[in-house]
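Data deposition worksheet. Section B asks for the primary sequence of the deposited chain exactly as it was used as input, without tags or linkers unless they were present during the calculation. Section C holds the resulting structure in token form. Section D is free text for depositor observations; keep each observation to a single sentence. Incomplete worksheets are returned to the depositor.
Section A, Depositor: J.P.
Section B:
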Amino acid sequence: MLDILTYLPARRKKSSSGWISFNAPCCTHNSESADRRQRGGLKPADDGWSYHCFNCGFTASFRLGRNLGIKARRLLSWLGVPPEEIERINLESLRQRNMEGILAERQTVWNRVSDVPEFEERDLPAHTELITQEQYPDLWNYLGKRAVPLDYPCLVQYAVENRPHVLIPFTHDGTIVGHTSRFLDDRRPKYISETQTDYVFGWDLQRPTWQHALVMEGVFDALSIGGMAVMHAEISNGQARLIRSLGRDITVVPDQDTAGMRLVERALELGWAVSMPLWDTGIKDVNDAVIRYGRLGTLLTIMQARETSRVKIELRRKQLAKRL
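Section C:
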């Protein structure tokens, strides 16, 4: 199988999260000027790779055992891979449909029968690039104050006259499927998002060794503690099926406000555990708690307050409601 790394430009750098950055070859093919700031990003995996350009927004991906898609073919050609080599890659990939591939396809069919949501690949806005401490110290410090992990690729639209903001990509199975922008001024709305029905942020960030899955409302809540965000005070049936497909013990951690109490009712309908820790006054959600207590300290309070008894959950909800 082709080693795509041999076709990447010599001038490149690799981040701690595995992304390799180099001058993007796609920009001139997408009505942009040639990239000179290493805004092309490729992340290799054992069975393929994912690519995203933080300038023109072009994305492509490839997985062994699948057909080589049109976007992946274009990227390879722009990198200088000969046409005959591209066809050879496609044929070799299809030959890899061994028993493991067949089982994976059957699992996909089962998921569809079970109505587990699927999501379309989406491009990010053009003129985006990674937020770094050197280029965007104010945005970098904001992310640090919000306890966002430094290896998560938060972005900014650098060439757009716009309100100051950070842009957070939405991914699913390693593919970009949407995004949200969090504005940092005092105007409203604070968030503008492009998302898809039944999407759950953080679903594909859950690690195989984890036995528990934490479900909350906000993206920053999920980022700061390694959980999942449904992004409103409701959990749709599709979101519930997607979360259940992980096969974990599920705990809902609602915001400690009026809207969060609605999330408790939905968790009870689904038969999931609920955690409403006794945090200090002024702490209304997981992100606030992580900022105050740290990630480990917040996890401990969540697990200690975890309840599966409807009676105890209702009592705790009434107790919190009196403080609102």
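Section D:
The longest helix spans residues 99-113.
The chain has two domains: 4-113, 128-321.
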